[in-house]
Amino acid sequence: MQTKNPIAEKGPRPNTYPNLRAEMARRGLTSQRLAQALRLNPGTLSAKLNDPSRLRLDEAFLLRDRFFPGESVEYLFDRHAGQPPVPEDTAC
Distance from the CA of 38 to the CA of which of 7, 20, 46, 49 falls in 20 to 30 A? Predict the structure, then answer.
């Protein structure tokens, strides 16, 4: 009898930084190239991009400066890009 892999059942992770992924695609950049710039292995970079608490501010600025000089760090690393805005409380 085969045991189920609980991690595989969860499906793909949400795209933590959709703007970063979109800009990478526009520029033909791979995660491996970004990892090399940070002197990380690709698995470590993947973990950092899937868990926002792991990516350091200096790493975000280095990636922006090297690969995306026309973009703001706020834009590239916006975790809520493409999501509908949360409605404000209209109760008085």
Answer: 7
